[in-house]
Specification:
Helix content is 69%, strand content 10%. The chain has ten helices and six strands; from the N terminus they run H-H-H-H-E-E-H-H-E-H-H-E-E-H-H-E. The strands form two sheets. A four-stranded antiparallel beta sheet has the order 1-2-4-5, with no helix packed on it. A hairpin with a 2-residue loop joins strand 4 and strand 5. The longest helix is centred in the C-terminal third of the chain and has 71 residues.
Length: 420
């Protein structure tokens, strides 16, 4: 019996080491790098940003000059271009009212900066999606390991119960109950395996890999705790988060668009030079200066009103996004802090007590001081505690990743914790 007890407890506690024997597996950092390089949504956003940046040069340029030839004095009896006695060559160039072109260039630059910030925000989102799928994959691997280990424990318990039944010290009902419990654990393994396959599929999608491609290696669920200062994180989020930076750049572009719309009340210009050719030589030159007359003030007023309304909407959106980001950071800090406290409770009290409870139940069952149901209840409680601990750890890692996404930067300071 002592030998069985050693085997039994060794099987129960073996998950503490086997669940974390996957340190040499998938590297989260390399997966994030792969996703940034290959994710198709990021590629699309990158190309949109490049297109917006290219537009800056377009808005800074003058309109193309216009060249024309006028054939004059064509005789009625020989209507052809070659019979004309004079030709007028005209080269004209349009110019915007001073300040318009520079405003258009600056607006295009602000819009390009907004797209660049949007790309940075999408990079942060993709990094979060990689972390979420990676941590779920790691959690499910360890949960399956726990369930498989419990099956081995139940098998050992079934063996000892069979021996006791053969000697008349236990009931056949004990064997039936342990078989039902084993089937229940097998059901858990099937469901967890299906969830793991789904997590792997999500991870491949974020990485830009084909679904049918292999994913070699195992993920590890770190026990380390993030160390941070809440006030500093909130300040960093409001100053450096690219999502807020995008909205601020859009607001700056909107305010400049109001100035540009106001300048539409002023005319644009056009100048041209026209040399006159006659008898094979230049006979004279004509110079022309023109301007458009912004006579229809209703059109310009509508354009200005639209620009002002858009700018006001962007101001309100900036305030709303800022408030939302502040709330997101504050709420996520609470989740991270609460998750860390819950993990500490599991590691220092709940799991050790459940392990002691099972050990005590096994000793009492061996001595005949308790029945098989009490032993089985202790096993169930330890299984639940271990699985709940892993789920809490997974939720904590997701919360940390959410906080990194909200702030816009990854944490570098972690308090190391030993794996259970």
């Amino acid at each position: 019996m002592k030998k069985f007890m050693a085997i039994f407890l060794g099987a129960v506690f073996a998950v503490s080491s086997t669940a974390f024997a996957f340190a040499e597996g998938l590297s989260l950092e390399s997966l994030i790098g792969e996703a940034i390089a290959n994710n198709p949504s990021l590629k699309a956003n990158k190309q949109r940003t490049i297109g917006k940046e290219a537009r800056v040069a377009f808005e800074a340029s003058l309109e193309d000059p216009v060249f024309s030839i006028e054939f004059q004095d064509i005789p009625e009896d020989d209507i052809s271009l070659g019979s004309s006695e004079a030709r007028r060559y005209t080269l004209s160039q349009s110019f915007s009212f001073p300040g318009k072109r520079s405003l258009k260039k600056t607006i295009a630059g602000k819009e390009a900066s907004a797209y660049a910030s949007g790309y940075d925000a999408s990079v942060i989102e993709v990094k979060y999606l990689v972390k979420e799928a990676y941590f779920e994959y790691a959690y499910l691997i360890e949960a399956i390991t726990v369930a498989e280990d419990i099956k081995k424990t139940l098998s050992n318990m079934s063996g000892i119960a069979a021996v006791r039944y053969s000697t008349g010290k236990s009931l056949q009902q004990d064997l039936i109950k342990i078989n039902v419990e084993t089937a229940s654990v097998q059901k858990d393994v099937i469901e967890l395996s299906a969830e793991k396959d789904a997590a792997v599929a999500r991870l491949k999608t974020v990485l830009g890999r084909p679904i049918e491609s292999p994913l070699d290696g195992r993920a590890a669920l770190s026990r380390d705790r993030a160390v941070f200062d809440g006030a500093s994180l909130l300040k960093s989020a409001l100053l450096g988060n690219p999502e807020l930076g995008m909205v601020k750049k859009e607001l700056e572009a909107g305010e400049l668009s109001v100035k540009l719309a106001a300048k539409e009340y002023y005319p644009d210009f056009m100048v041209s030079v026209s040399p006159m050719e006659r008898d094979g030589g230049i006979e004279s030159y004509d110079f022309m200066f023109g301007l458009n007359i912004p006579l229809w003030f209703g059109k310009n007023q509508g354009r200005l009103s639209e620009a002002r309304a858009n700018a006001e909407a962007l101001r309100a959106e900036t305030v709303a996004r800022t408030n939302s980001k502040s709330s997101e950071v504050a709420e996520t800090i609470i989740r991270v802090t609460s998750g860390a406290d819950t993990l500490t409770l599991y590691e220092t009290a709940l799991l050790p007590q459940s392990e002691l409870s099972l050990e005590s139940a096994l000793k009492n069952y061996r001595s005949g001081e308790t029945d098989f149901i009490s032993l089985l209840d202790s096993e169930r409680e330890l299984k639940r505690m271990r699985l709940d601990y892993l789920k809490t750890l997974f939720d904590y890692r997701k919360a940390v990743a959410s906080l990194e996404r909200a702030v816009g930067e990854d944490f570098e300071n972690f308090e190391e914790r030993d794996s259970r």
